[in-house]
Design brief:
With 864 residues, this protein is of the alpha/beta class. It has six domains: 108 residues, MutS, DNA mismatch repair protein, domain I, CATH 3.40.1170; 134 residues, MutS, connector domain (Nucleotidyltransferase, domain 5); 127 residues, MutS, DNA mismatch repair protein, Chain A, domain 3 (Orthogonal Bundle), CATH 1.10.1420.10; 98 residues, MutS, DNA mismatch repair protein, Chain A, domain 3, CATH 1.10.1420.10; 242 residues, P-loop containing nucleotide triphosphate hydrolases (Rossmann fold), CATH 3.40.50; 48 residues, no CATH class. The protein is built from 28 helices and 27 strands. The strands form five sheets. Strands 13-23-24-25-21-26-27 form a seven-stranded mixed β-sheet, with helices on both faces. Helix 12 packs across helix 19, helix 13 runs antiparallel to helix 19 and helix 25 packs antiparallel against helix 26. The protein is elongated. It binds adenosine-5'-triphosphate (ATP).
C-alpha cells in the first residue's frame, strides 16, 4: 500500500513502528492492544492466538492479532520471556475528546531484563564490555534497585553471570561474546551501540547520581570499564522505561576478592540454588527467611561464601547469639513476619507504579522496623548490634502517612478514598458536600417551601437540566423574583436559583475534584517518600541481613547443627558430618568424618556403585561452603581451615553447551580446575575420565591426580571406580585411600555408607545391575566376562604402573622428539612461555594444545 493511500491511523502506526523496528509494537485501540503485519504473525504464533486481518481501505486488509488490555500483563510476559522486546503504544488522549486521529505514542519498551514489576519473570539486566583480557561487568535489578559493577576475568565473568542470572545482557555490537553466549543459552544477549559504553554515557551516569567523580561510588581508576558497563545499563534503562525510571541505588563495586571462588559448574553441581529433577536444592533446606530482602540476601550469602576469616567469624558470632538466645530470635521473627518487601515497594515509587496499598504496606513495614530497632539493646554480638544500629527510624514519615492515608485504601490511585479527613480543608469540604448532598437538598426544599409558602414545591434533578425547583402552574404567582425560569412543562414550570446553581456546581464536580485532589495529595506524599528512598533501601537491606542471619540460626537450632571452628590452618576436620539435603529425606543417614591435613590431603575414594561416594564428597564440599558463609554446619564437630575456592567436577551434569560432547565438557571443567586451584582450594572430583575408553580414562585420571597432589597440593576428594589409582598412595605422601564400607554376605552385599581407610578393589557394578532387575542369564554372562577381563587387565595395568612409577615423570614429554636448536622447537617453547595461563580459557587452552600436538607430529615425520 503506498504511503498516500494509507489511512491516518495506519500512517501513525507506521511512524511509530519505524522508531521501534526491533520491537513488537502493541498498538492500543480501545480495549485492545493490536499487532500488525509481521508483528501479528509473530504475536499470533508465540501467544497461540488467532491471526485475523484488519480492513484498512476499500478492499485492503492487513494481518492483525490483538490482546485484551485488561489481561495484557500475562501476554506481555509470555512475549518477553521468549526474548521479544515489546513497545507499548498508548492512547495519549481521551478518544471521545480527540479531534481527528487519537494521539498515540510508545510509553515504554519492555525487554527481558527490564520487566521489573513482573515477579514471575524476575527480570534483571547485566552489561559486559571486553577490556583487554578482562571484562567490565555490571548488574542492575530494577525491581530492587541493586546496582553493582566490577572488572573481572573470563572465569569470574561466567561465575558472576551464573550467580546473578540476569535475564538480559547488553554487549557491544562488535564484541565477540560467543563463548559466554554458549554457556548461557537461556539468557538474551542484546547488542547495543558503542555509545552505550562511552565517556558520554559515563557522564550521564555521574549526572544521574549527582556526582562529579566515580570515586564517590568507591571505584578506583582501574575500574572504569566496570563503570562503562554500568553506564550502558543506566542508558538502556532510561531508553526503555522512558517516563518513569524505578529507584536505582548508586553503583557499588562488587569485590570478588573477599569471596571464595565458586565457578559456574560448581554452583550447578552442588545444587545450591537449583537442583536437577526431583532433588531439593540446598537453599530450600536453609531458607527460613520471612522477607523478600532476607530471601535474596540468603541466596547471596550461599553463592558468595567468604574467604576473610574475620568476616566469617563476625557472621558466625551473630548466628551463634541467635541460636542461643531463642527468645530474641522469636521476637525478631515475629516482627519480620509483618515486614513487606520494602526494597521492591521503594523501587515502585519513582516508576509511578506504587499503589496506595503499597504505600500502606511500606508504612506498616517501617513501623515494624522501628520495633526491630528497639531490640538493639538486647544484642551482644558486635556485627549484629551494628546492623541493628544502622536501622533508621522513620517516625516522621510513618506519623505523616498515618495522618494522611486511609487504612485500607483501594488498589487504584484514581478511585479516591485514599486520604483521611483533616489533611486538606478543601478536600474535607468537598467530601462533606458529597456526603451531605442529599441532606442539603431536603433542607433546601424545606426552606424554599417555608419561604414561598408553596407546599407542593419540589427540588429535583435530571441529567439534562441538572438541579431545578418545580412549581405547579396554580402556584406560579407565589414564585419569588430571584427564581430564574429554566423549563416549561404542561402543568408546571422549573426554576433555578443562584444558591442551587452553586450547590449544583459543587456537588457535580465534587466527586471528580475529590479524586483529583486525593491523587495530587498522594503524589506529593510519594515524592516525599521518594526523597528518602535511598535511606529506606539501605534500611531494608539491613533488614535482609538480619533475616538471613536469623534464618541460618533457626535452621541450626532446629536441626542441631554446630558452630565450626574457623582457622587459618591448612587442615579441615569434620567429625560425623552429614549431607544437609540428602539427610533430610534418607532415613538413618550415616554420618561420616573427614580429616585432611598436610600429610593427608588427596583422598581417593573407591567403593561399589550406590555405596555413597558421591554423597560423601558433595556433603564435604557443602559443609566447607556453609562454614564459610558464617552458617553452622551439619556435623558433630568441625574445624575448617579457610579455603580460597571450591572446585568440582561431578557426574555428567547438564551439558554446558550443545555441540560439545559430555567428555569434552568434563575435560573443560577439569582444565578449569587445574588452571585455577591453589594449595588453599578444595577440589571434588567424581569419576573423572569416565566419559572415554578405560585406558584413556585411567591415564587422564592418573595424570590429573598426580598433578593436583604433587604440584598444587590442593585438598581433594576423588571418587573413582578406577582401582588402579589407589596405587598413587604408595608414590605420593599426601595421597590416601579410602573406601565405602560394605558387608558381603554370600552373594548379597549390604551398603553401610561408612567411609573407611584403605581401598576396595571391587565395583559390584554387576551386582547393582542385578539389584536393578536385569535378567539372571545376562547377569551370569556378565560375571563370566568380568572375571576374564579382570585377570587380563590387572596384570597389564599393574605392570605399566610399576614401570611408570620407576620413571621420572615429565609433564611435557611431547618435546622429547623435538630437538633443541631446531627453529620450530624454539618457537614452540616461546609460545608456551608467552602463554598467559591466568587469562586463557579452558577451550582456548585445548585448541592451543591441539595445535602444538599437530606441529610436533609433523616435526616427528620430518616435516617443516
Ligand atoms: N551416608 C549415607 N547414609 C545413608 N544413605 C546414604 C548415605 N550416602 C548415600 N546414601 C544413599 O545411597 C544412595 C547412593 O549414593 P551415591 O550416589 O552417593 O553413591 P555412589 O557411590 O556415588 O554411586 P555411583 O558410584 O553409582 O555413582 C543415595 O542416593 C542415598 O540414598
Amino acid at each position: 500500500m503506498s504511503e498516500k493511500n494509507v489511512t491516518p491511523m495506519l500512517a501513525q502506526y507506521h511512524r511509530i513502528k519505524n522508531e521501534y523496528p526491533d520491537a513488537l509494537v502493541l498498538y492500543r485501540l480501545g480495549d485492545f492492544y493490536e499487532m500488525f503485519y509481521d508483528d501479528a504473525y509473530i504475536g499470533a504464533k508465540d501467544l497461540n492466538i488467532a491471526l485475523t486481518r484488519k480492513k484498512v481501505g476499500k478492499s485492503q486488509y492487513i494481518p492483525m492479532c490483538g490482546i485484551p488490555y485488561h489481561a495484557a500483563d500475562s501476554y506481555i510476559s509470555r512475549l518477553v520471556s521468549k526474548g521479544h522486546k515489546v513497545a507499548i503504544c498508548e492512547q495519549l488522549e481521551d478518544a471521545s475528546k480527540a479531534k481527528g486521529i487519537v494521539k498515540r505514542d510508545v510509553i515504554r519498551v519492555i525487554t527481558p531484563g527490564t520487566y521489573f514489576e513482573n515477579e514471575k519473570l524476575r527480570s534483571a539486566l547485566a552489561a559486559v564490555v571486553p577490556a583487554g583480557k578482562r571484562y567490565g561487568t555490571a548488574y542492575l535489578d530494577l525491581s530492587t534497585g541493586e546496582f553493582i559493577a566490577s572488572v573481572m576475568d573470563y572465569e569470574s565473568l561466567v561465575s558472576f553471570i551464573g550467580k546473578f542470572q540476569p535475564k538480559e545482557v547488553l554487549i557491544p555490537q562488535e564484541a565477540d561474546m560467543e563463548k559466554v553466549k554458549e554457556s548461557f543459552r537461556h539468557i538474551f544477549f542484546t547488542p547495543v551501540g558503542q555509545d552505550f559504553f562511552s565517556e558520554e554515557a559515563l557522564d550521564e551516569l555521574l549526572k544521574f547520581f549527582k556526582t562529579y567523580h566515580y570515586s564517590s561510588f568507591g571505584f578506583s581508576s582501574e575500574e572504569t570499564d566496570a563503570l562503562l558497563a554500568a553506564s550502558a545499563l543506566l542508558k538502556y534503562s532510561k531508553i526503555t522505561q522512558k517516563t518513569f525510571l524505578p529507584f536505582i541505588s548508586t553503583p557499588k563495586p562488587y569485590r570478588e576478592d573477599i569471596y571464595m571462588r565458586l565457578d559456574y559448574s560448581t554452583q550447578k553441581h552442588l545444587e545450591i540454588i537449583n537442583a536437577s529433577d526431583g532433588n531439593l536444592p540446598l537453599i530450600k533446606v536453609l531458607d527460613r527467611t520471612l522477607t523478600g530482602m532476607g530471601r535474596r540476601k540468603l541466596k547471596f550469602f550461599l553463592l558468595h561464601p567468604l574467604k576473610n576469616i574475620k568476616m566469617i567469624k563476625q557472621r558466625q558470632e551473630a548466628v551463634d547469639e541467635l541460636v542461643k538466645n531463642s527468645g530474641l530470635r522469636e521476637k525478631i521473627r515475629e516482627i519480620l513476619k509483618e515486614i513487606f518487601d520494602m526494597e521492591r515497594l521503594v523501587s515502585k515509587i519513582s516508576s509511578g507504579t506504587m499503589s496506595p496499598r503499597d504505600m500502606v504496606s511500606l508504612r506498616e513495614s517501617l513501623k515494624q522496623v522501628k520495633k526491630l530497632k528497639t531490640l538493639h539493646s538486647d544484642i551482644n554480638s558486635p556485627f549484629l548490634k551494628e546492623i541493628f544500629s544502622k536501622l533508621e527510624d522513620f517516625d516522621w514519615l510513618t506519623e505523616k502517612l498515618d495522618r494522611y492515608l486511609e487504612d485500607s485504601p483501594p488498589v487504584h490511585l484514581k478511585e479516591g478514598g485514599l486520604i483521611k479527613k483533616g489533611v486538606s480543608k478543601e478536600l474535607d469540604e468537598l467530601k462533606e458536600i458529597k456526603e451531605k448532598g442529599n441532606r442539603w437538598i431536603k433542607d433546601y426544599q424545606e426552606k424554599q417551601r417555608e419561604e414561598t409558602g408553596i407546599q407542593s414545591l419540589k427540588v429535583g434533578f435530571n441529567k439534562v437540566m441538572g438541579y431545578y425547583i418545580e412549581i405547579t402552574k396554580p402556584n406560579l404567582k407565589f414564585v419569588p423574583p430571584h427564581y430564574r425560569r429554566r423549563q416549561t412543562l404542561s402543568n408546571a414550570e422549573r426554576f433555578i436559583t443562584d444558591e442551587l446553581q452553586r450547590f449544583e456546581e459543587k456537588i457535580l464536580t465534587a466527586d471528580e475534584k475529590i479524586k483529583a485532589l486525593e491523587y495530587e495529595i498522594f503524589m506529593k506524599l510519594r515524592e516525599e517518600v521518594a526523597f528518602v528512598s535511598n535511606i529506606i533501601v539501605e534500611t531494608s537491606r539491613n533488614v535482609g541481613i538480619i533475616d538471613a542471619l536469623q534464618s541460618m540460626a533457626e535452621v541450626a537450632a532446629e536441626k542441631g547443627w554446630i558452630k565450626p571452628q574457623i582457622t587459618e590452618d591448612y587442615s579441615i576436620e569434620i567429625k560425623e558430618g552429614f549431607h544437609p539435603v540428602i539427610s533430610e529425606t534418607v532415613q538413618d543417614f550415616v554420618p561420616n568424618s573427614l580429616v585432611m591435613n598436610e600429610k593427608s590431603y588427596f583422598h581417593i575414594i573407591t567403593g561399589p556403585n550406590m555405596a555413597g561416594k558421591s554423597t560423601f564428597i558433595r556433603q564435604s564440599a557443602l559443609i566447607v561452603l556453609l562454614a564459610q558463609t558464617g552458617s553452622f554446619i551439619p556435623a558433630r564437630e568441625g574445624k575448617i581451615g579457610v579455603v580460597d575456592g571450591i572446585f568440582t567436577r561431578i557426574g555428567s551434569g547438564d551439558v554446558l553447551s550443545k555441540g560439545l560432547s559430555t567428555f569434552m565438557v568434563e575435560m573443560l571443567e577439569v582444565a578449569n580446575i587445574l588452571n585455577n586451584i591453589t594449595d588453599r582450594s578444595f577440589v571434588v572430583l567424581d569419576e573423572v575420565g569416565r566419559g572415554t575408553s578405560t585406558y584413556d580414562g585411567i591415564s587422564i585420571a592418573w595424570a590429573v591426580s598426580e598433578y593436583i597432589s604433587k604440584e598444587k597440593k590442593a585438598k581433594t576428594l576423588f571418587a573413582t571406580h578406577y582401582h588402579e589409582l589407589t596405587k598413587l598412595e604408595e608414590e605420593i605422601p599426601g595421597v590416601k585411600n579410602f573406601h565405602m564400607h560394605i558387608k558381603e554376605d554370600g552373594e548379597e552385599i549390604k551398603f553401610l555408607y561408612r567411609v573407611s581407610e584403605g581401598f576396595s578393589n571391587k565395583s559390584y557394578g554387576v551386582h547393582v545391575a542385578k539389584l536393578a532387575g536385569i535378567n539372571e542369564r545376562i547377569i551370569k554372562r556378565a560375571y563370566e566376562i568380568l572375571y576374564h577381563l579382570e585377570e587380563e587387565q590387572e596384570s597389564r595395568i599393574d605392570e605399566t604402573i610399576i614401570n611408570l612409577s620407576q620413571k621420572k615423570r615429565e609433564y611435557l614429554p611431547l618435546f622429547d622428539t623435538v630437538q633443541e636448536g631446531n627453529d620450530e622447537y624454539s618457537e614452540i617453547i616461546k609460545e608456551i612461555e608467552d602463554l598467559d595461563l591466568a587469562s586463557i580459557t579452558p577451550i582456548d587452552a585445548m585448541v592451543f594444545l591441539n595445535n602444538l600436538k599437530k606441529r610436533i607430529k609433523i616435526n616427528k615425520k620430518g616435516g617443516i
